[in-house]
Write a structure and sequence with these properties.
about 240 residues; alpha/beta; seven-stranded mixed beta sheet; 7 strands; about 40% helix
Length: about 240
């Protein structure tokens, strides 16, 4: 496994401890999944995951005192820096963790620790069980292709891609724009229909009062149509 993490399509990699934890919380008071990532190389951890505050983008530094949690997780647990939170590990044991910082993450619940912080919370020696990997080619098709190959390696139980999170973020960001485009189009069509109908009704009620149509006689229909056309062009110009 370690050999596959070097060279080839892999730009760089780092061993980490990965575990899925949980917490009963939230508006529905249901079981929420929390991803724990611990590292023994806090200095270079920022090469893989950026830890910073949402306001001012102040860097969040990993220490042995506690954990840095995602902003969404902090909101779920109503936690602030300096608070002590309780989470449940994969064995069902509750663990108390001090909130050492809150990082800007709006999708998923994450908790980041150093190897020293892990030893303090779990009371056992740190031992990596996973790798963080950066590929040379970040294209989605290449990520999926490399993931399919890596999962076949001996000892590989699963692969977590950040491309899924990126797609979720892109969908959330693009959705309001798509909704606004539909609303604008609907408003434009509604404006055209209303102005056209009002003009049609107004001209129909006063067609006998228009001296121009009386004088032109048989050309009245032509004038009537031209009035409609001019009004339609005016309505479209108004919408623009």
């Amino acid at each position: 496994m370690a050999k596959a993490m070097r060279g080839g399509a892999v730009s760089e990699s780092a061993p980490i401890y990965y575990e899925e934890m949980s917490k009963v919380a939230g508006k529905e008071n249901d079981k929420q999944s929390i991803t724990l990532i611990a590292t023994d190389d806090a200095y270079n951890f920022g090469d893989y995951i950026t830890l910073r505050s949402r306001t001012g983008h102040k860097p969040q530094v990993l220490t042995d005192r506690g954990a840095i949690i995602s902003e969404r997780m902090a909101g779920m647990m109503d936690a602030k820096v300096g608070d002590t939170i309780t989470v449940t590990d994969s064995s069902g044991t509750e663990r108390k963790v001090r909130v050492d910082g809150i990082t800007e993450m709006h999708i998923g619940h994450f908790m980041f620790m150093t190897s020293g912080g892990y030893k303090h919370v779990f009371g056992e020696q740190y031992q990596s069980n996973a790798y963080m990997v950066r590929l040379k080619n970040h294209e989605t098709s290449n990520v999926e292709s490399r993931s399919a190959k890596l999962i076949k390696l001996d000892g590989a139980k699963g692969i977590v891609q950040n491309t899924t999170s990126k797609k979720q973020v892109a969908t959330i960001v693009d959705l309001p724009d798509q909704i606004m485009e539909v609303l604008i189009l609907a408003a434009e069509l509604l404006a055209v229909v209303i102005l056209y109908n009002l003009t049609n009704l107004n001209v129909s009620e006063r067609i006998r009062e228009l001296p121009t149509i009386k004088v032109l006689g048989g050309l009245g229909v032509l004038v009537y149509r031209r009035l409609k056309t001019v009004d339609m062009l005016g309505a479209l110009k108004l919408v623009e």
